[in-house]
Amino acid sequence: MEPGAEKIELQATVNGRRETMRVYPMERLLDVLREQLSLTGTKEGCGEGECGACSVFLNGQLVNSCLVPVIQVAGTEITTIEGVASEHQLHAVQQAFIDCGGAQCGICTPGMVLAAVNLLERNPNPSEADIRTGLAGNLCRCTGYMKIFESVVKAIRKP
Amino acid sequence: MSTQAAEPHFIGKSVPRKEGRKKVTGAALYVDDLSFPDMLHGATIRSHVPRGRIMSISFEGGIPWHEFTIVTANDIFGESVFGETHGPPLQGENYVALILNDQPYLADEFVNHAEEPIVLLAHPDRHLVVEARRHVRVEIEELPAIYSLEDSLAKKQIVWGKDNVFKKFLVEKGNVDEAWSRADFVVEGEYHTGAQEQLYIENNGAIAVANAADGVTVWGSMQCPYYVHKALIKLFNLPEDRIRVVQTETGGGFGGKEEYPSLIAGHAALLAWKSGKPVKLMYDRAEDMVATTKRHPSRTRHRTAVTKDGKLLAMEIDFVIDGGAYCTLSPVVLSRGTIHAAGPYFCPNIRIRSQAMATNLPPHGAFRGFGAPQSIFALERQLDKIAQTVGLSAEELRRRNFIHEGETTATSQVIRERVDLESLLNRAMAITDYSAKRERFSRENAEATQQSRTLRKGIGLATFMHGAGFTGSGEVYLSSVVGAEATEQGQVRLLAASTEIGQGTNTIFTQIAADALGLDFDLIEVAQPDTSHVPNSGPTVASRTCMVVGKLIESAVLGLKQTLIGSGLLTEGYTQSEFQKACSEYIRQFGALKSFSRYEPPPGILWDDEKYQGDAYGAYAWAVYVAEVSVDLLTYEAHVDDFLALQEVGRVINPTMASGQIEGGVAQAIGYTLFENVVWQNGRMANNQMTNYIIPTPVDIPPIRVFFEENPYAYGPGGAKGIGELPMDGPAPAILNAIEHATAVSFNQIPLMPEMMMDRLKETDT
Asked: pTM, whole model, 2 decimals?
């Protein structure tokens, strides 16, 4: 943190709940979500926007929360991985990741699931090439991506 | 899985991942997701030079140093130099206990590689720790350093021991020296492989609580809780029951969390001991990449005697790996690389000399494949060279030399299992339409040259094997133990130190146990690896978890059943509810129902550690991989267009997970071959970011088509053999063999980056 920085108060809607946070303005959204709101499903992989493990929805747009200074989220709506499933049912993408082996170690999975949800929201019937480019901002070191692609295809068939 | 009547057979079915729901909802807790009251955040101050003598350490800037916990090597010996100490001084040993115990936890007088840990800091404010680490000044008088195998072999500087040699092996079979005169051809080649970063997406980290009253407890991201346990016993000089190590959900390992977590756990624990508070020590990506282990770079020289019919007469192999500044696991990596160096071929005369050398790079360590990808790369390139020299196709040369049941490997191990590499090869070639494509690409490449088009295509293959489990007598020394205990509700809890790191341990152990007892999947629970309540079932490495530990799981749960039957509470042909009732009743009458099983080698396994002869592995997986590539002569980029992975791995326990392992390994190996270039500058990784160290993304990976042949192994659970490392071995040579087809130029080094290809192709043009 910059020496002399002072904390400010800001509000945002996170997973449908209004949250008030006391933060340094330039703190990373990633850290605020994880530390203040205990939403630890959002992961840090690289801290520089390469791996996508920290993906969240910000006003409906998929962003890398490690690159978002928290001051930018005042008054916005944020959805993290914890807000994807409904109370009783997993999102079709989450279920497909379980069924098809799309998750291995699981550390990229929250970001990958959000990227897949985002892809299907923008393009409900993506081609294989669309799936690849739609997930291009998210890195996985375990799966070789094949089962992630299969998961997305399965989620298309079962909305 | 529902809780109604159990399906009889889980083995062979793609049962969904046991902890899958936690992972897709973000509920799985990794080490950085844990927090303790009053927890401090730690940081590591490292050497900025590759080799030198530490002159002084000073603390500068406007930092409130009195609020910090500061640890140096002196604290390990109970002589705190900086800051206050809570509790009694330590009387520990300053080395990471592993093989030779040469790596210090904190450099004391000398540093031997860049980024070597020297000072540890901790403070409650994470942001202040980041700021403070910039203001610790370590004066180091620099000493001359070496960074390459060549300099180490030439003893340009002696940086370790008397001769820079961590370990040497000599494997001899037949008489190589007499074979040369009988050869129609003698083919020589030299092959190089580079370092590779494991790049698990979860960085390394640990949290420690440590004090004289409670001992030391560490939670962390790791593959091998008992390696950490062993190391902390020495570091703290405490009895083993005072050290507790708990594996948290681990976001990938690939070997990168085999030995290094012992260091991080120790650092966190030293800070915790001195401060009297819990300490979290998390690496960020840059620190993880610059400071932790990578795959050993290698150089292999081959000299092969062949007849005009393409039969291998003699192989002389010189294999050297760069171990970096400390020994760590290099002898074992060297061993596996050495044993795999002659591949799945029968050759009557073999001599393999190998050495692990010291340099002033950070220690290289475990990485999926563990030396085998390096030596197999060399061999499978060499075989293509031999084929060209003899005038045979790559596949025909291999076919004429494949090993068979009853023949001997380089270590004179008699192969006792049915091996049918010919069938694997035929099937792989049929699936990929190999011969027709090879012909078509050759024709089209010739036309492209005439028409000055820049795209070339190629297809290539590699045939190889990978031994499962620890090498030689390793499993006997490990003497792994697995436990199973019944709960009052009639559930069965599996007790093993084998970690789930994404590869599927939880799920396959559950499948094996459920089938052995005839119970439902959900009735089996897998205990969190915690050294205070799971036995030492050995490290989670070496493709041993399923084959070796899985077999122990099977025996341990069968022990529960036998006890229940022996006590008269259960009879054969029981139902699930009868089993549950019997457990409850047994526990009510006798207090607890537990069963343990200890490793015993399969009959007839013999190994000579001195001569390096005998049964190197209980079982091997066998494979044929085919890569199809295109090379653009304008951009010098090579792209893998299609990849076929066909393997015989014994019985496949869980097809989805098994193919997931293969696909992931192939992708990682494609990265090793074409993307992942560790740039060294004065012994330090210069591109220690995901921005400039490039791993394959979703758009880079070709369709990876995975096929299995199943030949059950009598001593694996349900017939399974090892699988995890195998897919790392074959892709690099298959891809470079395909690139040679595409370009008509032989590349013998990986990673093969576009700039390297450009230099070589321009050279051959002129």
From this structure: 0.97
